[in-house]
Design brief:
heterodimer; A: 289 residues; 10 helices; B: 233 residues; alpha/beta; six-stranded mixed beta sheet; four-stranded antiparallel beta sheet; 36% helix; ABC_transporter-like_ATP-bd (chain B); transport (chain B); branched-chain amino acid transmembrane transporter activity (chain B); amino-acid transport (chain B); ATP-binding (chain B)
Chain lengths: 289, 233
């Protein structure tokens, strides 16, 4: 086996893992905090990427497109939470039907606006080159994605452990009723978390655009993987999404390289093994306290 | 201060509070006793807005609060020390305290970290421990301190003595008396008759969602048939 192939695979797996991390973190925290599986969460990833495409077409640069997509996804997230999901609180069946239905509707909206064919975002020009180190060629853009993913992780770590808002969200995951009984408007916290999670998913979509491309039904495929990440990593924590994302990303990429027809099966096997050993996921806490 | 009038609360289809009426005067401590399932915790949850009553009126400082959302009720000055403490396990002791810190609505006595640590020096030593690393007594102190940090005018305490050693229960009793002295009005739900009688100005006994007996601690302690009938003592 060629060492440079291996290194590039690892980098690709890491980059893919970071994208999965970005989409999964919102899903995980929303699930942990609000008890909602938002099956439309994958849509934020895809719509974010398509929006960035349109903004780029208008001549803006990649960073502007990224910013616009993230803001728009935050807004879409708040609207979905405030006007639709909020009616289904406490009713899991309704939540599943509502968010799943929404995912279908939005996938069709994508088809109407951007067409059904596979598209992709151009790699930003500043990063569109490779560096060769010790005879191994690294695509710079992937390195940048890994770097951004790590920065996001550090920011989330800071928010979670060093800010009052982070403490309130952790408390909400522990016992949201108690949080509201202490005078904190949990509805506002829900909306904020939803917006933030949607924006991060959008970010993942845009950064993934040059690597993965996008198609209208992509939301469903990415949702399945991010659900695995959430289950693997444990609910309600960015750490779980980070480690779970990297694990699933690596296993997917290496699976595709060595056992192409089995790559998704291996991911599910990984999930099954982790669940057997740690039913609440790698970083999940059991709610038995 | 707090008046309940003909309050009816349901859990799903079961009718728990069946016309509960009582009041807690300002700067007084009222203890609510009764067997398991009498509806004591539901009464607390109805006042705090966690299980809003279906009928009846709950007035706090001349204001109707039945049906308000929990955080609104808390912000009017109602502090909750819940059954089972419900400390946030993934927060440190200090975080448990600071997430709720708020100025009191009328700017009266303000509780802050320094003051609650003075009241509970043990918590200062445990400030950086996680909520789930505390003993039962420490958790109870933290639950009281956490409620104080919201600077309430009124304290709802749900079984503060539950599962605690007698020494600690005595300590909790002292704290309740001190808080009353500091100007708080308190409704305390208890199974522990002696604690209730040592802190309360008035005792109410609940059965099947209603008040069935009321009197002073002295009257209750003298009335063995009532204790036997409603409290199983």
């Amino acid at each position: 086996m060629d060492i440079s192939f291996l290194v590039v695979q690892i980098l690709t797996g890491l980059a893919y893992g970071m994208l999965l991390f970005m989409i999964s973190v919102g899903l995980s925290v929303i699930f942990g905090l609000m008890g909602i599986v938002n099956l439309a969460h994958g849509v934020f990833f895809v719509v974010g990427a398509y929006l960035a495409l349109s903004v780029l077409d208008m001549g803006a640069n990649f960073l502007v497109a990224l910013g616009v997509a993230m803001l728009a996804m935050a807004l879409l997230g708040v609207m979905i939470e405030r006007f639709l999901l909020f009616r289904s609180y406490g009713n899991e069946l309704n939540q599943v039907l509502l968010t799943f239905g929404l995912a279908f509707v939005l996938a069709d909206v994508i088809k109407m606006i951007w067409g059904a064919r596979l598209q992709s975002l151009p790699t930003p020009a500043v990063l569109d080159f490779s560096v060769t180190l010790a005879g191994i060629t690294f695509p710079t853009y992937r390195l940048a994605v890994v770097l951004v993913g790590c920065i996001v992780a550090v920011v989330l770590w800071y928010l979670e452990t060093r800010t009052r808002t982070g403490a309130i969200i952790r408390a909400g995951v522990d016992d949201r009723e108690m949080v509201s009984a202490l005078g904190i408007n949990i509805t506002l916290v829900f909306a904020g978390v939803f917006a933030f999670g949607a924006a991060l998913a959008g970010m993942g979509g845009v950064l993934g655009g040059p690597i993965l491309g996008m198609y209208p039904d992509m939301g469903f495929d990415i949702l399945v993987l991010s659900l695995i990440v959430v289950v693997l990593g444990g609910l309600g924590t960015w750490k779980g999404a980070f480690v779970g994302g990297i694990l699933v990303g690596m296993v997917q990429i290496f699976g595709q390289a060595y056992f192409p027809s089995l790559s998704l099966v291996i991911v599910f096997l990984l999930m099954a093994v982790v669940l057997l050993i740690r039913p609440s996921g790698l970083f999940g806490r059991s709610h038995a306290t | 201060m707090l008046e309940l009038e003909d309050v009816h609360t349901y859990y799903g289809t079961s009718h728990i509070l069946q016309g509960l009426s009582f009041s807690v005067p300002e700067r007084k401590c009222v203890a609510l006793l009764g067997r398991n399932g009498a509806g004591k915790t539901t009464a607390i949850h109805s006042i705090a807005g966690l299980t809003p009553p279906r009928r009846g009126s709950i007035r706090f400082m001349e204001r109707e609060i039945a049906g308000l959302r929990p955080h609104k009720i808390a912000r009017l000055g109602v502090g909750l020390v819940p059954q089972g403490r419900r400390i946030f396990p993934s927060l440190t002791v200090e975080e448990n305290l600071i997430i709720t810190n708020r100025q009191s609505p009328d700017g009266a006595e303000n509780w802050d970290l320094t003051k609650v640590y003075e009241l509970f020096p043990a918590l200062r030593e445990r400030a950086s421990n996680m909520g789930n690393e505390l003993s039962g007594g420490e958790q109870q102190m933290l639950a009281i301190a956490r409620a104080l940090m919201t600077n309430p005018r009124f304290l709802l305490m749900d079984e503060p003595s539950e599962g605690l050693a007698p020494v600690i229960i005595e300590r909790i009793g002292d704290v309740v008396l001190r808080l009353k002295e500091a100007g708080l009005s308190i409704l305390v739900v208890e199974q522990n008759v002696s604690l209730a009688c040592s802190v309360a100005d008035e005792i109410l006994i609940m059965n099947k969602g209603r008040i069935v007996w009321r009197g002073s601690p002295k009257e209750l302690l003298a009335d063995e048939p009532v204790q036997h009938k409603y409290l199983g003592v």
